[in-house]
Write a structure and sequence with these properties.
Helix Hairpins, Heat Shock Protein 90, alpha+beta, 12% strand, 7 strands, five-stranded mixed beta sheet, 9 helices, 358 residues, 3 domains
Length: 358
């Protein structure tokens, strides 16, 4: 391994001073020697014969040559500092695209690199703040829309009840049932919002423990049997012979798998099966849950883990939630250091969760 020698700016300045001093002394000696050589035969005779005056002229000439030599030697550094100063002023004025070429590896070069890094991070911070502001506005808009729709229905049916605009008790109970369903939808949305906010909080901590994924998948599959039967479906499971264990928060991992299975039933009821697979490549546990419903359009499949994205492109709640479930699932998997993705594969829609295995 080679180590590149970096000369400090202090040593460079000392070298410039030394070089300028040497050049000025050498130049002064040459000039004074020329004056002395021509002095007796020319106009410098009085100067040559006066030792004190000769010494004064030598000092002045040496000092002048030193100043000229030092300015010439340091002109590049001065221009570089002026360039850095100009770039800093541009950044202070709001031009975060200003860039300083790093011409050396000394303190001034590191200063240029630090200014570039500062501008880059500041730009990223501002862009992140803008994205957060945009996301907040989108969140408010989406939540307002999803709350307003059931709330409008609730108010409408309650108005009918309040005005006694129902024929009999059966109709009244029907109105109350609709109000209850819409209120339940609102509660689910609020719960999902709370869960999503909690999952995306950087201060949130996981309660990890050892989880046997095969056993967890078997338990969840059995719990989903009534739901699958109601949809005219059944599950098929494929597990490895060896036990697959991960360090995870069990309750949150169950939330992820339940959400994916619910989506498989909701959007895959046209198919007969829900496939549940567990694979164990070296160092990883890979869970795949697939359904045989209509495939997710290629233009939408990469966005389904974003909040409030729903595949059917409708804000109607007839087919499920408000589009927060998969966003919550992605946040939980990310907290575990894993990955989640969806893809269409041989007439199946597959959701794949990958976690580090023990």
């Amino acid at each position: 391994m080679t180590h590149e020698r970096v000369i400090s700016i202090r040593w460079k300045m000392m070298m410039m001073v030394f070089a300028s001093g040497f050049m000025s002394l050498f130049g002064a000696v040459l000039i004074m020697f020329g004056i002395y050589s021509l002095g007796y035969a020319g106009p410098f005779r009085y100067l040559v014969t006066n030792a004190f005056l000769m010494m004064a002229v030598a000092v002045v000439v040496t000092f002048a040559l030193f100043i000229v030599s030092f300015l010439a030697a340091s002109s590049g550094t001065i221009r570089y500092l002026s360039m850095i100063s100009s770039a800093v002023n541009q950044i202070a004025g709001g031009d975060l695209d200003a860039y300083i070429p790093v011409k050396s590896k000394d303190e001034i070069g590191r200063l240029a690199a630090d200014v570039n890094q500062m501008a880059s991070r500041l730009k990223e911070s501002i862009e992140e703040e803008r994205r957060a502001e945009k996301a907040k506005n989108e969140l408010i808009t989406s939540v307002s829309h999803d709350l307003r729709t059931p709330l409008t229905s609730i108010l409408g049916y309650l108005a009918l009840v309040d005005d006694d605009k129902y024929e009999d008790e059966v109709t009244l109970r029907h109105y109350i049932s609709i109000v209850h369903e819409k209120a339940q939808n609102m509660k689910e949305l609020v719960d999902d919002l709370f869960e999503f906010t909690k999952m995306t909080d950087s201060a949130f901590k996981l309660d990890r423990s050892e989880v046997n994924l095969g056993r967890m998948l078997e338990q969840l599959a059995e719990e989903f049997v009534p739901i699958l039967s109601k949809a005219g479906m059944e599950y098929r499971m494929s597990l490895p012979d060896q036990k697959v264990v991960v360090q995870a928060d069990p309750s949150l991992l169950v939330r992820v798998l339940e959400n994916i299975m619910s989506n498989a039933v909701r959007y895959g009821s046209e198919g007969r099966f829900m496939d549940i697979e567990l694979h164990n490549p070296p160092g990883w546990a890979v869970i795949r849950i697939a359904n045989y419903g209509p495939p997710i359009p290629a233009t939408e499949i990469h966005h389904i883990f974003e909040r409030f994205v729903r595949v059917e492109g409708s804000r109607s709640r007839n087919t499920g939630g408000a589009g927060l479930g998969l966003a919550i699932a992605k946040s939980i998997v990310n907290l575990h250091g894993g990955t989640i993705r969806a893809y269409n594969d041989d007439k199946r829609t597959v959701f794949e969760v990958s976690l580090e295995a023990k």
